[in-house]
Amino acid sequence: MSLADPLLRVVLTGAYQLMKAGWFLRRPNVSGAHAVALTPERKLILVKLRYAYGWRPPGGGRSAGESPEQAALRELREEIGMTAHGRVRLACELERDIDYRHDLQSVLIVEDVLYSPPRWSWEVERIIEVPIDDLPRDMSPIARVWIDAVKDRL
Fold this sequence. Notes:
Blueprint: H1 4-21, E1 32-37, E2 43-49, E3 55-56, E4 59-61, H2 68-80, E5 82-84, E6 88-95, E7 104-110, E8 114-115, E9 124-131, H3 141-150
Parallel strand pairs: 1-7
Antiparallel strand pairs: 1-4, 2-3, 2-9, 5-8, 6-7
């Protein structure tokens, strides 16, 4: 971690909060997709974004015409450097009323994920693998809801 990382976190967090408040850029209403990504050893892959609180599954917004599966796999490639994966299945769809500009959030289970983390990313600060029953205390609240909702499907 370089000296610039803490400063970058402050700047990106501030910009993200301003965007959420609609101060300078209004994000369009889009659906998103997140991947409950499991390694071949059945560990959960989580990311910590530079601009948002807590650990969470990789994911983000979907482009127009992009399926939840396509979006989740794209986000895995972008955020963790996914190089291969096994079975992909829709875990559930959860209604969201959290202020993140998503009306409906698709959560997918992606098994046997192999990846090579990028050396550095503007978006992702860290990547970890954890047992599904030993989640970090500082999880994003919505991420904890998603994981609890899909645990019985893993």
